[in-house]
Amino acid sequence: MRLEYLTSNDWALLRSKSRKMSFRPGEIIIRMNTRPEALFILKSGSATVEVSRGNVIARLGEGDICGEMAFIENSLASASVIAEKDTETDALHLAELTEVFTSFPHLEARFYKSLALLLSRRLRKTSGELAKSRRANSTLVRATRFEKPAGPPFFYLFSVVKLPGY
Hints:
By secondary structure, the chain is an alpha+beta fold. About 40% of the residues lie in helices and about 25% in strands. The protein is built from 4 helices and 10 strands. The chain has helices at about 10-15, 70-75, 95-105, 105-145; strands at about 20-25, 30, 40-45, 45-50, 55-60, 65, 80-85, 85-95, 145, 155.
């Protein structure tokens, strides 16, 4: 997902303040439970977002940004970002980004509006996937009902499958 409210001049200024960083496959771009010192924009390559080693929750590609949640919340990273293949990034160090925002408040407004849109779209996508998963799980339970010839329904998998909210 992109920062779509930024103008070409905004990007030129941010690129002039960024530092190019390269990561080999398996290298950690952002480590979970640490405070990132930069936002990273992938220029090439790809990376995975993991909440535990091997538990991939998202994939990032060219133009995607990472470190934005810790940046907005001024907190620790909630996930690790790991290069999947050779990956080039523009690293926007937070101290320099703050200086740019002080000098160019309109750029700051467009930047935060872009982040808000990015996070809103991500939340919509995640909510949709969760809803689909819940429907699929409830369908699974309904599909495993068995009727006895006489008496109440018999639920073969009901005691095995516990579904939150159902």
